[in-house]
Specification:
The protein is α+β, with helices and mostly antiparallel strands and 300 residues long. It has 2 domains: 4-209, Nucleotidyltransferase, domain 5; 264-299, no CATH class. 34% of the residues lie in helices and 26% in strands. It contains 9 helices and 14 strands. Strands 1, 2, 3, 4, 10 and 11 form a 6-stranded mixed beta sheet that branches. Strand 13 (237-246) and strand 14 (249-259) form a beta hairpin. Helix 7 (264-278) crosses helix 8. The longest helix is centred in the middle third of the chain and has 23 residues, at 127-149. The radius of gyration is 21 Å and the shape is globular. Bound molecules: adenosine-5'-triphosphate and magnesium ion.
């Protein structure tokens, strides 16, 4: 097993979610002293609300198909363009991570390097490019943040971690690796980690009290115990069951289970409900003429 990552000065971990994404930084020296303190979680600025640890997973490309922005910045700019009805030549992408989940087949994913995904206007664009642009932005933001907060750290001092749902196929993970490579994240310094396993490790790094003081939840973290981790995200519901073999050591006792049952389905059902009462053509017209209102509705 490659353990060179352990010697890197710091870990930059990217949580690339269906609806929201973020990243955090952790120095090896801090981690060796205390695993849970001094984890630096980057805070994003929504503009009109307090800062948050995650930003919307949205990508905006300019009319010439080059990168414009990601996250709140992309959402705000696109809403602004839509308000002035100047958005038509731009490309706005959201909720695209779900395209990598194919419920009918655990061994493959829904996308190949040639696949296309649709923007909000229904136009096709190369899927790998959409993921690559987004990860490239994340990486640049990481480097920029490190430069500001921790000057002196070199790019090759960083080990990257990218999380994926446990229910994803190997093919989907490999697609993410390709996107990360295109985003200039060196493969030899990248580790793909499963979202529920990261949650389990995080819980494990907390110091447990004496046995008689333990809560039921804390007892589930003792060696020999079993636990179930449920991650209800925007796109997927991801369930993992582990047996604890030792400190931060887990054994998968049943294959990860889950499906496309994340909170974003509420938005989808709401949209379907509006289509039912107003009719498809009216809703399409509403989206065409009032993209800014449509986006506000989605946000709300
Ligand atoms: N207070 C709340 N009550 C219910 N749902 C909420 C609340 N706050 C956020 N959500 C929903 O949680 C989802 C976002 O969760 P999260 O950030 O974990 O998802 P994600 O990481 O983007 O998705 P995934 O892990 O599936 O790729 C959104 O669908 C949002 O609507
Ligand atoms: Mg998530």
């Amino acid at each position: 097993m490659d353990i060179t990552w352990k010697k890197k000065l710091l870990v930059a971990a990217i949580d690339f979610g269906t609806t929201f994404s973020g990243f955090a930084l952790s120095f090896l020296s801090d981690y060796e002293k205390d695993k849970t303190v001094n984890i630096f979680g980057y805070l994003w600025e929504p503009g009109d609300q307090p800062k948050t640890h995650k930003t919307p997973t949205c990508l905006l490309l300019k009319p010439d198909m080059s990168f414009h922005s990601f996250g709140y910045e992309a959402e705000n700019k696109y809403a602004e363009l839509a308000e002035d009805n100047e958005h038509k030549d731009w490309r706005f992408f959201r909720r695209f991570k779900m395209k990598l989940y194919k419920p009918s087949d655990r061994n493959s994913c829904g996308l190949s390097t040639q696949s296309t995904i649709k923007d909000t206007e229904g136009r096709d664009f190369n899927a790998l490019a959409v993921f690559s642009f987004s990860l490239d932005y994340m990486k640049r933001k990481i480097i920029e943040t490190i430069g500001e907060k921790f000057p002196g750290v070199r790019e090759d001092d960083i080990h990257y971690v990218l999380t994926t749902p446990a229910i994803w196929s190997e093919e989907a993970k490999s697609f993410m690796r390709k996107a990360a490579k295109n985003a200039h994240i060196p493969t030899e310094r990248l580790r793909i980690a499963l979202e529920p396993e990261c949650a389990a490790v995080y819980v494990h790094t907390k110091e447990l009290p004496a046995l008689d003081m333990m809560t039921q939840g804390e007892r589930a973290m003792k060696p020999g115990s079993c636990h179930v981790i449920i991650d209800l995200g925007g796109g997927t519901l991801d369930i993992a069951a582990h047996r604890v073999n030792g400190h931060c050591q887990f054994e998968e006792i049943i294959p990860p289970y889950g499906g496309p049952w994340g909170g974003d389905n509420i938005n989808l059902k709401y949209e379907q409900f509006l289509i039912k009462i107003s009719g498809g053509p009216a809703f399409t017209k509403f989206k065409e003429n009032n993209m800014d209102d449509y986006l506000t509705m989605q946000r709300q």
